[in-house]
Amino acid sequence: MKLKHLLLGSATAVLVAAPVAAQTQVEFWHAFTGRLGELVAAQVETFNNSQSDYVVEATHKGNYSETLNAGIAAFRAGEQPDILMVFEVGTATMMGAKGAIKPVYEVMADSGADFDSDAYIGAVKGYYTTSEGEMLSLPFNSSTPVLWVNRDALEEAGIDPDTDMSTWEQVGGVLDKLKEAGSECPMTTAWQSWIHLENLSAYHDTPFATKANGFGGVDTELALNGDVQVAHIQAMGDWAKEGKFIYAGRRNEGGANFRSGDCALFTESSAGYAGIKSEAKFDFEVRPLPYWASAVDAPQNTIIGGASLWVMEGQSDEEYKGVAEFLNFLSSAEVQAKWHQDTGYLPITSAAADLTREQGFYDENPGTDVAVKQMTTNAPTENSKGLRLGSFDQIRGIIDEELEAVWSGDKDAKTALDSAKQRGDELLRRFEQTSR
Amino acid sequence: MEKRVTFKGLWLPLLLVLPQIVITAVFFFYPAGQAIWQSLFIPDPFGLSMKYVGLGNFEYLLGNPYYRASFVTTAIFSILVTVVSMGIALYLAVLADRLIKGSGVYRTLLIWPYAVAPAVAGVLWLFMFNTRVGVVSWYLGLLGYDWNHVLNGEEAMGLVVVASAWGRISYNFLFFLAGLQAIPKSVIEAAAIDGARFWTRFRTIVFPLLSPTTFFLLVVNIVYAFFETFGVIHTITSGGPQQSTTILVYKVYADGFVGQDLGSSAAQSVILLFIVGLLTIVQFKFIERRVHY
Prior knowledge:
heterodimer, A: alpha/beta, D-Maltodextrin-Binding Protein, domain 2, six-stranded mixed sheet, five-stranded mixed sheet, about 50% helix, about 15% strand, B: mainly alpha, MetI-like fold, 13 helices, 2 strands, transport (chain A)
């Protein structure tokens, strides 16, 4: 209770503090600090200087969860912003909140702005569109998991740094050699549920949940205890037992271990690029996420993580026009190409990817297009379009707990994933009750 | 006999206690009432609709083995935090009480940790025990002990207990020291003349005379362990590994503010409220009888 009041208090304080101007104000709440925060501020400034009708006011509201909570608290108090950044796992929560949000395709249509949803990359926008192809929120920052390789560490262990690691079978062989050569940390990971279950499922064209991963309705159930997932988690569990996979934490704690040169291999978001590039004092490389050759002949596509921009209900038509202008500005090829190159996030339109290629960025920074290719080589299927599950942040928490039981050797993969399914399904049923 | 001041009439006394009543009503009864009300519903996060479920939220919670396990975790955690922080504080207070020179400096230094916010304390301890760069874990590694609170539940519990108890030692120390100094020296001297050694004096005179302080601290520390250790747990373990450090209040936060499940979160608040009320009653009814004022 206390926290909620605090949030409400700070939300109103910010609104009161906002200066009053003749131009239409567009309020934009986001979750970025540091370098990313500066880049967002630069985008907003460019937009504000480019026209004189609207002023976008960008406000940082804490991390992803805190930003979502601030938005919810503000909505309850009738003080919601025009645009709210929500991370991908909050998608189902936002979708379920009919009456609190205004779908992006509607905002665009009402304001008469040029809007072609086909311009957006399928695997990126798919996460945020309905089954009918209507875009609900605008993808803002999207990334996908890749394999980061410390080439120096491989060489030290007497392994050819160019060795093929397209499949997990090959990675297993490399891990054996690294361990034999005395590596303290052959492999680590960030975001275990996102990479080793959600993306693993999509990449092998296997459902993570029934009803098309939840796109088909809220009566979805988890399907993450299938054969592919169990086999993968069991293999990872075995590697953990043998000291070949080192678990560092639920979020991206493993990043520090990789950037310092301790770990040879690292599964992490493509958006880790900026940090790794600035800190790593070794020769590193980006490889596509491995797949199990025993399960599929060739991988499907991976899915995205990151956040999208939701337009909130209850604003004036003028403000919605401003919102439409701003979203169009953000989608333009130049802005997107710059964002993609600065951050390592994926471009949201094909035009931005093409522009980046024309500018020679991929040639100068080899490996930066691995993620783009991994996402776009195949058209997404029902299993690889994304996930739409209620209470998904909590379900990820449950998955984290169960995976920790596998890494510590307390449970085998099958038992842990069965338990994750059963516990997650309970939350899905509760969410189903609220969204009726 | 106690001296009582009596007010005539009804209005003046009512007026005098009014500010207290208003504050309690606004900051305690209203939110508590809201929590009880919300615990009967499954609301959607945006407050657009509420579905009445009666005691459904409680049924859902109490039927969940992971929630029930969280009670045990909370009990272990609270007992450990209370025992560790009070034990060390008492030991330090007894030492400080015997100091003749430099007791002021000693006291001031011991009070410092209390000024550190729980979340900051959490980060400090986490840094020392970080599995990769932590000083302590590095020394433990030299001794051949592989510290890994990221996967080892007992080590994680130990770490959050130490981090939560650490800042609390100062607070307890202050009260114990004040309590010790309030004990008449003549009693202790008399016992010393009769040939009672330090340990006997402590056991038979000092500790019983200190019991009001100990009792007060027991109540306050348990409430602290139940409610205020959130920051430490959030920064160090986020309730993990698995659920080994998920105490009740952390689950309230996780379900309400991460999961947006306000119905369940409210129901958990009500259960917590009930437990702490019960604990306090038990403490006052049974333990207070053994306290000598």
